[in-house]
């Protein structure tokens, strides 16, 4: 399996980093695209270096290079996850403005009818954000804001991150044991 991963400059870049770690653990070939703002956000929010993050992926691409392999529908990937997904990126995709490789790759997912998962990071959401998400959802895009769950009684931030990533991996049909599955109550 091959997955394209886009990381934009929205807060929550740790979700994208942890996704790369988990996909590597599951032997999934990853194709990473970091936006320029993602690189800045990595510096602000984490202790990771860009080189360390790029080392988690099988291939890395410059977000300005619209001639890179993921820009073409003939480049076969099973899907793409943009996590976190800035509202700028979501808006560009909604309106077909593929000025960056992240948006162009997502646009390819739409035209080729491949799985596309967006993890938008913004709150509160204004009507434009909501309309853009609705439009993309109606086109088959999975919209997954990283909202914390508490029924598994998280003890640390990593538990919240992993719970969300377990759901992303589920959407990609990748078996995982990041969290204990809900078995109901009597």
Automatic annotation (TrEMBL):
GO terms for molecular function: carboxy-lyase activity; flavin prenyltransferase activity. Dimethylallyl phosphate binds at residues 151, 167. FMN binds at residues 9-11, 35, 86-89, 121. It holds the Pfam family Flavoprotein. It catalyses: dimethylallyl phosphate + FMNH2 = prenylated FMNH2 + phosphate. It is an enzyme of class 2 (transferase). Flavin prenyltransferase that catalyzes the synthesis of the prenylated FMN cofactor (prenyl-FMN) for 4-hydroxy-3-polyprenylbenzoic acid decarboxylase UbiD. The prenyltransferase is metal-independent and links a dimethylallyl moiety from dimethylallyl monophosphate (DMAP) to the flavin N5 and C6 atoms of FMN. NCBIfam families: PRK06029.1, ubiX_pad. Belongs to the UbiX/PAD1 family. This is Flavin prenyltransferase UbiX.
